[in-house]
Amino acid sequence: MELRLLVTFEKVATVLSFTRAAAELGYAQSSVTSQVRSLESSLGTELFDRLGGHIKLTEAGERLLPYARQIIELAEEARAAVTGAEEPSGTLVVGTMESLTNHRLPPLLEYFHHRYPKVRLSLRTTIGDETRQALRQGTYDLGFLMEEETGHPGLESVVLAVEPLALVAAPGHPLAGGPVALADLAAGPLLATEPGCAYRDLFERELNSLGAPVAFMEFGTIEATKRAAAAGLGISLLPEVTVAAELAEGTLVRLDWQPPFTLRTQLAWRSGKRLPAHARLFVEQARRLVAEQG
Question: What is the pTM of this model?
């Protein structure tokens, strides 16, 4: 089996589209189709079911895919070893989220920029299910997650830190200054980012346990949500790291309510994936620098 054919097969299997695979590989679509046909011919079996305008892996394709990925990753590692490159290099596509990009990652990004200038980081902002799916498909090399669970099917992960949450409101809010019950929060108004953020979804689950659906005013981003809370529009549950400055300045106050769930910031990648040297460096430095932030 030629490595070139395996690379093409892996790309088509990841994106499940000959057209998109051709665009990402820089080939004509006819070349991608021809290469997959050549691989199928050499193996004596079909790797994809062609169903009208859609394709899916056959059982043989499903069995071949993990081997193809291992061979490709080993070939890349061997090439790096043979060329004797002393300085780590390559591209890392990393899934992240607003709260981490703005408040946890700057020291890590700065460190890599100065220490490993040949490593090109491409950050993609997604959350939850989207990040996990992109990792499983191979679209992302690494992905940051802020989840209650630490086990994710098809993924390996390391916990970087427990992520404290803070329920915040504007100074002078009626609930400020004393213990707050869950029923008090259900009376609202409640402010939130978009659905899909683990802390928003878990908060909503707790509130809905009271028996009546709870509505949120959605602001899309953490920054917009914080401004709305500071303006007195309602209360919001956010990662503590994202509101530390506002709490210190007094533009927001913390309400006396402790969430009955714990979130952990994690870094994940596809199970069985052999991380190249520059990806392993990223994981190691992420663990060190996030731990130092406390």
Answer: 0.72
